[in-house]
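Example record for the data management plan.
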Amino acid sequence: MEALLSLANIPLAQVGEDAARLLGAGLAIGLGLIGPGIGIGILGAAAMTAIGRNPEATGNIQTNMILGIAFAEALGIYGLVVAIMIGFIF
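Corresponding structural encoding:
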């Protein structure tokens, strides 16, 4: 705990390149997953509404929903890859 408190007293000018890189990686994954998270939520809600209105079309609706979720999740994976690249490569 004392180590964390001693880090709080470091001036901003002395914060190293590593800290800025890790902060950038955290922001990349955090902001990169907001869109897919919202998109997947909207897709799931719309699919449940559609299935509730037309239960006979459940198979087609679920197939399209799963494809949409996979494409939205791919964007989140791109954000993860960028965060890993920022954190470890650059």
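Summary line stored alongside the record: The domain at 26-89 is CATH 1.20.20.10 (F1FO ATP Synthase).
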